[in-house]
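anyone else get weird line breaks when pasting these?? whatever heres mine. first is seq + tokens for prot A
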Amino acid sequence: MRTILPGEQISDKPVKMENGIIEDGKTYATVIGLLDEASKSFIPLETVWYPRRDDFVIGIVDSARNSVYSINLNSPFRGLIIGRRGESEMNIGDMMSASIRDVRRESDQIINILWRERKLFGGKLIAVRPSKVPRIIGKQNTMLKQLETGTKTTILIGLNGMIWLKGGDMPLAIKAINRIQDEAHVSGLTERIAKMLSEESK
């Protein structure tokens, strides 16, 4: 068995599979997993975020040079902003949100070209498992609205698993988010979170 990271080649042939993509006649993993080279079978270990056009993401600027910004998206996939269109320049360490305009592969590395970027001022970043993001948002944003109302905190959730919080009772919001992540598979979670926010906000 060999450990395979997202973006690594699984097969030199096109193989249709749930956790793989085909590019240039080859198959690449979209999640971390184990490759049984004898049987050529791939076993996914943990679902991770795989970038798609228009995905909303949150990241941190980790390099800036000649109006080209490299963005740490807390994933194996790097983000790039080419030419800053906003009013304020960004510096290394700045937090920002953006949408993915294009997904490219360069030297076996996934590169996300970002746009509609916005610098985030203040607040706090936390990371969750990307596979739990839909549960934290909820159907029609119900869980997110409940979190913001119950804690008076502004919350932005990136599909890459990065969450930005500002204002209100941030410690309670983070506690609730962590509970949602841990209990995402349990029924009745919305009601339990509502009860928790009601009791602890008092």
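and prot B, same format (seq, then tokens)
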Amino acid sequence: MLKKEFKKHDVERLRNLIKGQSNNRTSQGVGYTKSLSDDHEEGDIWEENGRTWIIKDGIKENITKLDKFKQTTVPLFCPKCKNIMDKQLDANYYKSYGECLDCRAKFETKHKLAGTWDNYIKETFNSEVDHLIEEYKTYYYEQIYESTKGYVTESGEVEQWLGSIDEGRAQESLSSVVEYLEGLKK
């Protein structure tokens, strides 16, 4: 004699199991579905429940104050070879090249064997010089077009300074510095 009575959904579940239809439902469920207006796309930033969120690589991530710190720390595994980054110089190579010491050694060896190492060094050096030239030009234009209407001292007083920059001399200086830096290229 059975001590427990079978309910209708229990019987349906047993029938489904016997028929091999284990995925079929035997009861109705009630739940909550997010509205379609909450769907976000790659790169979207929004605030929800007092937190800021972003979609990166299809994954919803929380934006915190430590995000900048996360970018400067060294990961446990090399992003290229997926090996553990536990060697003494791995951290330095990751910060410089974004890969572990072994990956960098393989990269350099491949270029040296192919005979393209000198060209690689030359292109890298020249791109650094180009970047330096662009930074210098940006600094130059910021200084030339800086407002000289007044400066605030440490005591809070506003001082009016007379005079201006001789733009002709400044332009000559800029062109001579750029010419010197261009001469450094290999």
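btw re prot B: The chain is about 45% helix and 10% strand. The mean pLDDT is 85.
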